[in-house]
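Quick log. Single chain, no ligands specified.
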Amino acid sequence: MSSGSRLAEPDTPLDPAVPAAGTEASCGHPDGVHATARIRATYNGRVTTLPQLRSDGPFHLRRMRTGGRAATVGIIGAMSAPLGGDRLALDITAEDRAELEVTTAAATLALRGPTTAPATYDVRLTAGEHACLRWLPQPLISAAGSNLRQTCTVNLAATSRLLLREEQILGRADEEPGHLVSRIRVHHAGRLLLDQHTAYGDPAPGWDGPSVLDGHRAVGQLLVVKPDLDVSRAPVLLREGIKDGCAVLAPLAGGPALLATAVAPASSALRELLDEALGHALATAGR
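-> predicted structure:
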């Protein structure tokens, strides 16, 4: 999130018995920020409305002007986050037939902070029947000395649509990255569709080797889930052998879904690759 003054912790006491994965557990450090922002979108028969738009901690939520029936929410950073020891979460729901897009105003910068304890940043996405949910944040930057556990948990109904893009930049200019552990877990119609776990930066073994990033410092994923996707195609390799990175777009077993994974030397090249993969994915179905 963008830089700013640290806010005070909420007055409501936190239950230390709640697991850390839920992001609301106490980290045992007085400087850790605990915050959960919530977005809920519903369809009223004409347009998508936002009956719940709850900002918290570093997350300032703002509805953006759009045309048509969709709603768009921008997340503006109200403080520097995540720092070591923080427990941050976003809970985003598009109910039946709602169309919701959520993005961030700037890149999220993971920093070391006052403690070496890991920070957690959990995103929970839910889409109902015939709903459309687009999660399109700006990149996450893993700065030197940071320690972050990031998760994205998605629950989709059988007829819902999802566009998810996540980008990680490993280190700022001329610096080594921190330690970043990321997991994406997606359920579609009650069945597991994707469970991807990655770890970058020391002490993760082999993360910078030729079989993983091969010296690249930008990595990203693009997931498209649509009922009318053609998933019978073979995987598509984009820009094979090009020094500006490459990506592969492949169908996922068990669902109408395509996953692109890309690596690149910089964020601009990474975004170009993911945009190219999205173009290939949308060519198989109506937009």
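Residues 2-29 have pLDDT under 50 and may be disordered.
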